[in-house]
Write a structure and sequence with these properties.
Layout: H1 2-41, H2 51-66, H3 70-92, E1 93-97, E2 112-116, E3 122-123, E4 130-132, E5 142-146, E6 154-161, E7 166-170, E8 173-176, E9 179-180, E10 183-191, E11 196-205, E12 208-214, E13 234-237, E14 240-244, E15 249-253, H4 263-266, E16 269-270, E17 274-283, E18 292-293
Antiparallel strand pairs: 1-2, 2-17, 3-4, 5-6, 5-17, 6-15, 7-8, 7-14, 8-9, 10-11, 11-12, 13-14, 15-16, 17-18
Organism: Paracandidimonas soli
EC number: 3.4.21.89
GO biological process, one term: signal peptide processing
């Protein structure tokens, strides 16, 4: 969906940009000459009028002849705005809306967030080809990406596994390269999707301290989507999954571990699918006070 908007924005940028350039380089000069010719053409009819009336009539004739067509006027007016929005959204930051509770308690359904588009490299709009590498995603980053199963849909999850990592999620416990990721209980959290309280835990991934939700009493319920790319890198069991992350890919999970459709189910996220790193909540219409950075 964001890809469709990006394409529409690119088309508008190109059309208005072409018209704006033609107006600056060609059309304005033609209109000026037409205005001067119209002003000169009425000179014979101005005899006997006062200086003020002659000046007014000349200006009126000039303005009518030099008036830009409506389509040129609209394009020239909107081009700077479209240029600003296009550059901001394509290369700096892009707004997204959180559509579900899969990232609770970090992000809530309805949060409006900003995503850093340049931290991992500059990409060409629409085709999303990286042209200037600047950095790579790190473990613990919250990222927006195009859903590998249906690239027209944007997902948001937390990066758990980097290229080459071995990820094990067994009995509600996460292991990275053989090391258990410690979970420290921090009370309960009301999970609105299931209308129940579940355990809230503190967890550290890389340099990022964050909170997750885990229902230790619920079953794993893992069902892999068949035949996703590098499916052979994962082994499923009744109590969890074990995966080797391929090069150029990432293993992602939602912070709401029992209510998130993520890499455990549909596989890995290619680097080319990553849109950027989410970093700021700027609004939630249900809770206007939810503003600020998050980890």
């Amino acid at each position: 969906m964001s890809w469709d908007f990006a394409l529409i924005l690119l088309i508008l940028f190109i059309i208005t940009g072409i018209v704006w350039c033609m107006d600056v380089l060609v059309f304005r000069k033609r209109r000026r000459l037409a205005g001067e010719a119209a002003s000169a053409a009425i000179e014979p009819s101005l005899a006997g009028l006062s200086l003020e009336e002659r000046t007014q009539r000349r200006q009126q004739a000039y303005d009518e002849a030099a008036k830009a067509p409506w389509w040129v006027e609209y394009c020239a007016s909107f081009f700077p705005v479209i240029l600003f929005v296009f550059a901001l959204r394509s290369f700096l930051v892009e707004p997204f809306r959180i559509p579900s509770g899969s990232m609770l308690p970090t992000l809530q359904n309805g949060d409006l967030i900003l995503v850093n588009k340049y931290e991992y490299g500059i990409r060409l709009p629409v085709i999303d080809r990286k042209i200037i590498p600047l950095g790579t995603p790190e473990r613990g980053d919250v990222v927006v990406f195009r859903y590998p199963v249906e690239p027209g849909i944007d997902y948001i999850k937390r990066i758990v596994g980097l290229p080459g990592d071995e990820i094990v999620y067994r009995n509600k416990t996460l292991f990275i390269n053989g090391q258990e990721v410690r979970q420290v209980r921090d009370g309960d959290f009301f999970e609105p999707d299931n209308s129940t309280y579940i355990g809230r835990y503190n967890e550290t991934l890389g340099k990022v301290d964050h909170q997750i939700l885990v229902n230790k009493r619920a079953s794993q319920g893992l069902m892999a989507i068949a035949n996703y790319p590098f499916r052979e890198n994962c082994q499923y069991a009744s109590n969890g999954v074990q995966c080797k992350v391929p090069e150029g890919h990432y293993f992602v999970m939602g912070d709401n571990r029992d209510n998130s459709l993520d890499s455990r189910f549909w596989g890995f996220v290619p680097d080319r699918n990553i849109v950027g790193r989410a970093f700021f909540i700027w609004m939630n219409f249900s809770e206007p006070g939810r503003i600020g950075r998050f980890h």
